[in-house]
Amino acid sequence: MNGQEVHVLVVDDDDQVRQGFERALAGYGFRVTLAASGEEGLTLAHATRPEVILLDVMMPGLTGFEVCRALKDDPETRAIPVVLVTALAGVETLREGYDAGAEEFVTKPVRGLELRARLRAMARIHRQHAELARLMRLQEELAHMLVHDLRGPLTSIAGYTSLLSERRDMPAVVGPELAAIRNQVGRAERLLTDLLLTAKLDQGRLQPQRTHSDMARLARDAVDAAQAAAHLRDITLELEVREPVDVSIDESLVIRVLDNLVSNALKFSPRGGRVRVSAAPRSGDYTSELRVSDQGPGIAPEYREMVFDKFGVVEVREKAGLQLGLGLAFCKLAVEAHGGRIWVAPAEPRGSTFVMQI
Question: Omega of the bond prior to 349 within 30 degrees of 0, cis?
């Protein structure tokens, strides 16, 4: 533990047992807090925030199992490792302890050397968890800062581009270039939005706000919005819908998913190719199915799950050469937040088909 003192909360109703644990730990790099009951243990766990809790199973009042469940149900104490102490070594005792959320068991009589080794291991896990939580908070804060700081310059670029396109003395030949700039600014803004929403979805902080909607209408809107980009790439966008396709969704999230899927298809389709978007009703667990097919190089079977993983995307890029980005990771998180599913399948005669069911 690099010389760091480990704070242990010992919860046991037997005075002699508590003192025995204190003797076994004190002077060996441990700081010990003692609690004489489960109720006192819960209070001290909140007040002192130990790195490990050593908890007796058989106690009057709240048992060790009940205390462990209470600790794991509380977000403030959930991450603290719990080591249960018991004289009962049966399978049922172990099962109940692990079901309650305990990380480790020690059986009586407890050997001091073994106890100290296990508590140090649990404390190491606790510190690693705390560091991971800190890094995740920093990641979210960085995402917020990036979105906030970059939106300003992008808004200025879009504004000046619009002003230039309205000038009467501007040569007509630069019109396509200005349109391309506006298109890329819009793409950058969408990427920033995906970054922020992905962080929130990944941490469970963004819950879909469902309303009654029509997936066919949303598919048509997505195709209409992408027509300009398709025209620039000489790609034909085809739409096949059966209206209505009734769904209960968060429209803003699903619109982002559709935009990402269509943009992804345009990105990988060759010039002169076709992108096909379809939406149809379903029965059973899912009420709608949306498909987006492209005529790109396709995705090898071993990479079809990985393309939805924001960490796996890097490996796909290195091994397969595909320039996939955060958009597909956002799609997966948003669809699964709705209780739906999304996957990629091969298209015929070539390309990929992304299928979303909600």
Answer: yes
Helices of type H across the chain = 15-25, 38-48, 64-73, 91-100, 112-166, 175-202, 215-232, 251-268, 312-320, 326-337
pLDDT (tens digit per residue) in 246-281: 999 999 889 989 998 998 899 889 999 999 999 999
Question: What letters, b where the CB count within 10 A reaches 16 and e where it falls short, cover 187-219?
Answer: ebbbbbbbbbbbbbbbeeebebeeeebbbbebb
Banded pLDDT at 316 (limits 50, 70, 90): very low
CATH level 3 topology of 211-357: Heat Shock Protein 90 (3.30.565)
Q: Is there a contact between 329 and 313 (Cβ–Cβ < 8 Å)?
A: yes
How does DSSP classify residue 347?
A: -
CATH, domain 6-132, list 3.40.50.150, 3.40.30.10, 3.40.50.2300, 1.10.730.10? 3.40.50.2300
Residue 105 near residue 84 (C-beta atoms within 8 A): yes
Measured between alpha carbons, how far is 281 from 242 in angstroms, rounded to an integer?
A: 7
Provide the token pair at 211: 């309303």
CB 271 within 8 A of CB 235: yes
Taking residues 169-181, report their average pLDDT. Answer: 83
Task: Quickly list DSSP for 59-115.
Answer: -SSS-HHHHHHHHHHSTTTTTS-EEEEES---HHHHHHHHHHT--EEEESSPPHHHH
Determine phi and psi for 3, rounding to 5 degrees.
75, 5
Band of pLDDT at residue 149, cut at 50, 70 and 90: confident
Identify any residues that bridge with 52 across adjacent strands, giving them in sequence order.
8
Distance CA 93, CA 90 (A): 5
**Beta bridge pairs of residue 342:** 356
